[in-house]
Amino acid sequence: MIRVILPPHLRALANVGREVRVEVPGVVTQRTVLDAVEREYPMLLGTMRDRQNGQRRALVRFFACEEDLSNESPDAELPDRVVKGEEPFMVVGAMAGG
């Protein structure tokens, strides 16, 4: 099981706690994790990625093992510690303003 930490606004939308767990068959990548989250919580469709092109939304960031993965390929394998469930995949709502 892959552990996913969601930001407060997405937790409220999905009516879940801080962390959800999803089953990801095959290779664990950003894309397959987000596919699993959206499959389990369809109300989150379009909140983390654009529905048309699948691109990460501008004010959403992805982290794992203290690394910002936001600009990595969505098909790059996630760190082994995430795959083993030792570390979570984190979805973070970026701050904007000035």
Structure description:
This protein is an alpha+beta fold and 98 residues long. The chain has helices at residues 8-14, 30-40, 80-83, and strands at residues 2-5, 19-22, 60-64, 67-68, 89-93. The chain has a five-stranded mixed β-sheet, with helices on one face. β3 and β4 (67-68) form a beta hairpin. The longest helix has 11 residues, at 30-40. It is globular and about 35 Å long. It starts with a strand and ends in a 5-residue tail after the last strand.
- Strand percentage: 15-25%
Per DSSP E runs of 2 or more residues, the count of β-strands stands at: 5
**Total helical segments:** 3
The N- and C-terminal alpha carbons lie at a distance of: 39 Å
Low-confidence stretches: none
Radius of gyration: 12 Å
Order of helices and strands: EHEHEEHE
The rough form would be described as globular
Average of per-residue pLDDT values:
94
Structural class, from helix and strand content? alpha+beta
Task: Please give the order of strands in the largest beta sheet.
Answer: 2-1-5-3-4
- Please outline the major beta sheet: 5 strands, mixed
The proportion of residues forming helix, as a percent range, comes to 10-25%
